[in-house]
Amino acid sequence: MAITTTERLRTSNLLFFVSKRAAALPALAILAAISLSGCQTASTDNVIRIDKAQGSSENIASLTSVINANPQDPEGYNVRGTAYGRGGDFSRALADFNQAIQLNPKFYQAYANRALIYRNMGKLPEAVADYNAALQINSNYDVAYIGRGNLYRQSGRDDDAFNDYSKAISLGTTDGRAFNGRGVIYQKRNQQDKAIDDFSKAISLSPNSPEPYNSRGISYLAQNDDDNAFADFNHAIDLDNKVAQSWANQAFVYERKGDKAKARRSYQHAVNLDPNYQPARDGLARVGAGS
């Protein structure tokens, strides 16, 4: 008897979602100084968190054997496309999602997965079109609302993004990115209490993600609550010490406290992680390069 894809593999509809001189600055100036985009750190802008093991020859070979056993099953291509995407091979991922959709034009998860590849390739109109297609097939697909909301927010269409995040939330999503994304928009509107509520919900749903901690910390700073902000930034570092924004945010609190030496070290660490992260470069310029 042929081995089905679902017997060999378990895959999530989420695919790659697997599942920022000192104290005198007013609140809005603080937000601008430390990067108002909140969760749009390097890890989020890249969209797909690269995991080379997913694209290893051994893993791909295993997934290919499943496809060979069931060449007409679109799920096999969707799963292998996931592995290619996580491994950073976007062209092969795209080909697999194309094949999955050809085999099943109603495969709304594959449309959303392909949209993520398009977004990571900088093809935003194509990504929006795929999210639209997924939602035409399944108007209750929260992942597509969140993905499209991220694209809208990236394009400056905050009202449209807000509506998409809110729709996903109204559908009962358990994906913390919906709350984090909506919270960032509340934050930009200077509705900090609402932003903090959404970031806290995002943290409850995604406790191991540094993004909502950074986002909530920024709103705490806007309310001059340095202690809670500092705690959030430190926790973001504990979760992932490779995120430049977390170190720059921590440095900003040190700077507000007048501890230039510690601020300098943290800003420098952020710059070492991401030489192009402008809030860290600006902060380092403010406190001085040191000796």
TrEMBL record:
Entry superkingdom: Bacteria
Pfam families attached to this UniProt entry: TPR_1 (PF00515), TPR_16 (PF13432), TPR_2 (PF07719), TPR_8 (PF13181)
Q: Which Gene3D superfamilies match?
A: Tetratricopeptide repeat domain
Which terms in the Gene Ontology molecular function aspect does this entry carry? protein prenyltransferase activity
Q: Which SUPFAM superfamilies match?
A: Protein prenylyltransferase (SSF48439)
The keyword Repeat is assigned to this record: yes
Q: Does the keyword Signal apply?
A: yes
* Repeat positions for TPR: 74-107, 108-141, 142-175, 176-209, 210-243, 244-277
Coiled coil located at which positions? none
> In the record, which residues are listed under signal peptide?
1-42
InterPro entries in the record:
Prenyl_trans_a, TPR-like_helical_dom_sf, TPR_2, TPR_rpt, Ycf3
Q: Which UniProt keywords apply?
A: Repeat, Signal, TPR repeat
> Cross-referenced PANTHER family, in alphabetical order?
TETRATRICOPEPTIDE REPEAT PROTEIN 6, UDP-N-ACETYLGLUCOSAMINE--PEPTIDE N-ACETYLGLUCOSAMINYLTRANSFERASE SPINDLY-RELATED
Protein name in the entry: Tetratricopeptide repeat-containing protein
Origin species: Rhizobium lusitanum
